[in-house]
Amino acid sequence: MAITKELIDGLIVTIQNLYLADDIPWMIGYSGGKDSTAAVQLVWMAIEKLPKSERTKPVHIMNTDTLVESPVVSKWVEKSLEQMERGAKKKSLPFVPVRLTPDYNNTFWVNLIGRGYPFPRMKYRWCTDRLKIQPVNNFIRSKIAEHGEIILILGTRKQESTRRNRTMTNLEKKRVRELLSPNPTLANELVFSPMEDWSDDDVWAFLMQYKNPWGYSNMDLLTMYRGATADNECPLQIDKTTPSCGKSRFGCWVCTMVEKDKSMEAMIANDQEKEWMAPLLEFRNEFGNEDGDRERRSFRRMNGNLQGNYGKLFHGPYKKEVREQWLEKLLMIQKNINLNGPEEFRDLELIQIPELRVIRRIWVNDKHEFDDSLPRIYERVMGNFFEDPEWIHNENFGQGEWKILESVCQEMYPDQELTFEMMYTLIDIENKAVGINQRKDILNSISNTIGKTFYKDEEDATRFYLDMMVRKKEHGGKYNEKFLDFQIVESEFEDDKE
Question: Full-prediction pTM beyond 0.85?
Answer without folding.
Answer: yes
